């Protein structure tokens, strides 16, 4: 049988997806300001006209990239939480997720920082970036509420604020991971999350853990 032809909408979505992927690569390599519309289109295998047929300008593409990354990461983390039947299973799944991300951590983090810098330079982008950060914090807060309740523990503070601590700590730990790879593993964020959750719930740490992150390598 001959392969089914894509609909016009499917073809358009494929073009947009390829442009977003190309932009993510170039932004990580050269920065948002260092990547031109022509370079993005060429990397994706399209013409300049194809770019403007899908996006008004580069800012429009940045917004699409933020939306794409936010939804994808939210879906991945939610899947981890919904499929895990215990805290230990959730931690194991999170460790696997971070190890996979660690294979491309430098590019991933470079893109994240470029998008933050672009938002600082372009105030109209900030609300969407703030929405992305809020979605991430909300997902963490939901996980914290569930795990603390499961352990019969009262949160030591507003779960939203506790989630903000975890979310902000992630960025700092990833910087340390990139700068000091011999001292910290890709799982350092999960190590910190586990330590905080055990502390907040009053559950002692069992076995080797965050105090010696390198031993997990």
Describe the structure.
It contains nine helices and no strands. It is mainly alpha-helical and 217 residues long. It has two domains: 8-55, Orthogonal Bundle (Arc Repressor Mutant, subunit A); 62-204, Orthogonal Bundle (Tetracycline Repressor, domain 2), CATH 1.10.357. Helix 7 (126-150) crosses helix 8 (159-179).
What pattern of helices and strands is seen along the backbone? HHHHHHHHH
Q: Quick one: CATH superfamily of the largest domain? A: Tetracycline Repressor, domain 2
Please give the largest β-sheet. Answer: none
Give the number of DSSP strands.
0
CATH architecture of the largest domain: Orthogonal Bundle
Distance between the termini: 49 Å
Determine the number of helices (DSSP H or I, runs of at least 4 residues). Answer: 9
Rg for CA atoms? 20 Å
How much helix, percentage-wise, in residues? Answer: over 70%
Indicate the CATH topology of the largest domain. Tetracycline Repressor, domain 2
Low-confidence stretches: 207-217
Average pLDDT confidence is: 85
Structural class determined from secondary elements: mainly alpha
Number of domain units: 2
What is the CATH C level class of the largest domain, in words?
Mainly Alpha
Write down the overall geometry: elongated
Please state roughly what percent of the residues sit in beta strands, choosing from under 5%, 5-15%, 15-25%, 25-35%, 35-45% or over 45%: under 5%
